[in-house]
Specification:
CATH superfamily of the largest domain: Tetraspanin
Subunit structure: Interacts with SLC19A2. Interacts with NTRK1/TRKA.
Helix content: over 70%
CATH architecture of the largest domain: Orthogonal Bundle
Strand content: under 5%
Organism: Ploceus nigricollis
Membrane topology: Multi-pass membrane protein
Keywords: Disulfide bond, Glycoprotein, Lysosome, Membrane, Transmembrane, Transmembrane helix
Protein name: Tetraspanin
Oligomer: single chain
Length: 212
């Protein structure tokens, strides 16, 4: 290629890199904004996107997840876009290193999730079950998220109805959430044991495996 053609090719690649990373930067800003919105006004977000509550994202704190992902994308987008524009080797190496670290972490997380599903279930139960006992029926947003999740996915608790034993909800309502007994109400231990509604973890895990 002639020097002019090489220069034109380089300019095109540089421009495409800047546009690509600008899109990542804007996406990160959007996710960060949505995460802050969910944190500040979670109830209105849930009303708008309630149908998505069957997703695994409803088991974890959506606001913090979006904020973290948005912040990471902002950094990646800035390093890639500004580094390409300035043709800075330092910024581009930082960008490459960050993407490489994230890639390795994703691969490691995928391997752990596939190989140690039982361990993941144990760890998740250790984190979420105490939250169900303490926050369900107390925190309106947390309660609404779990109510919609259990209704849409047709599940009860994380493992089963026993997750609500000795919880604030059980002590104040003298029973379990109605989703744990199907259509039966009131929902007590006898009915819950007979109906045997599966826990949300198993249902969501099956959904993930189906769509893997």
């Amino acid at each position: 290629l002639s020097p002019g053609a090489k220069m034109g090719c380089f300019t095109f690649i540089k421009g495409m890199m800047m546009l690509f990373h600008l899109a990542i930067f804007l996406s990160g800003g959007t996710l960060l904004g949505v995460g802050i919105w969910v944190k500040v006004d979670g109830e209105s977000f849930l009303k708008i996107f309630g149908t998505l509550s069957s997703s695994i994202l409803q088991v974890v704190n959506v606001a913090y997840l979006l904020i973290v992902i948005g912040a990471i994308l902002l950094v990646i987008g800035f390093l890639g876009c500004y580094g390409a524009q300035k043709e800075s080797k330092c910024l581009l190496m930082m960008f490459f290193s960050l993407v490489l670290i994230i890639f390795i972490a994703e691969v490691a997380a995928a391997v752990v999730a596939l190989v140690f599903t039982g361990l993941a279930e144990t760890l998740l139960a250790g984190l979420v079950t105490p939250l169900l006992k303490e926050k369900y029926g107390v925190d309106d947003t947390f309660t609404e998220i779990w109510n919609v999740t259990m209704t849409k996915v047709h599940c009860c608790g994380l493992n089963n109805y026993t997750d609500f034993n000795n919880s604030y909800f059980y002590e104040t309502h003298h029973g379990y959430p109605r989703q744990c007994c199907g259509t039966e109400n009131p929902c007590n231990s006898t009915v819950a044991a007979e109906v045997a509604v599966q826990g949300c973890f198993h249902q969501i895990l099956e959904e993930i495996r189906t769509n893997a």
